[in-house]
Write a structure and sequence with these properties.
Strand order of the largest sheet: 4-9-5-6-7-8
Number of helices: 4
Shape: globular
Oligomer: single chain
Structural class: alpha+beta
Number of strands: 9
Helix content: 10-25%
Distance between the termini: 24 Å
């Protein structure tokens, strides 16, 4: 589950904005016995993702509260990509500010970019034709809301549109391994 810093919906439960703040999180579905009614008036809008790799492609990062271990691992990878020393402080707001610039363009649209397929680490999403694929080992796995459905050989000679924000790709290159849905293993 995730959120984008606040209510994205109105009192009629209609989505009226794409985000509210720069803080886009992925959270656990269950944490400390909390119970929420989805799209409650005046509360943050719950977003649901197939897996962590999908949430990363959307530009989210792990929550500091309910996913502290994953956040700390992500922060370590983030720090190493920017060549900070481990003793240098790095707060979530700094990550959010840089990440926001890499996920949304000046018009509020998703920012994408081109890279050679061979350069993409596991966990990235690439768009080929109009479909989104998870890069995983020597294959691409077709993403659907229900799970990964088709496996094709990874065409390393292609240059593709990358959907995962660049700083997150760099974290994957530095060793952060995103969690993926079980359907990826069946392909």
């Amino acid at each position: 589950m995730g959120n984008r810093g606040g209510a994205l919906h109105n009192d009629q439960r209609e989505v009226v904005r794409s985000f509210k703040t720069k803080c886009w999180l992925t959270c656990r579905l269950e944490f400390n016995g909390r119970h929420r009614v989805v799209m409650s008036p005046h509360h943050y809008t719950e977003l649901f993702f197939l897996d962590e790799a999908t949430a990363f492609a959307a530009g989210h990062r792990p929550c500091f509260e309910c996913r502290r271990g994953r956040f700390n691992a992500f922060k370590d990878a983030w720090r190493s990509r920017s060549e900070r020393t481990s003793s240098a402080s790095l707060c979530a707001a700094e990550i959010d500010a840089e990440l926001h610039q890499s996920r949304i363009d000046e018009r509020g649209r998703k920012r994408t970019y081109q890279l050679p397929m061979i350069s993409l680490p596991n966990g990235c999403f690439a768009q080929i034709t109009s479909e989104a694929y998870l890069v995983w080992n020597d294959a691409l796995l077709l993403w659907t809301p229900e799970g990964y459905r088709r496996r094709i050989c990874r065409p390393n000679q292609l240059t593709v549109t990358v959907l995962t924000p660049r700083p997150i790709v760099e974290c994957f290159q530095r060793g952060y391994a995103p969690e993926i849905h079980e359907s990826a293993r069946a392909q």
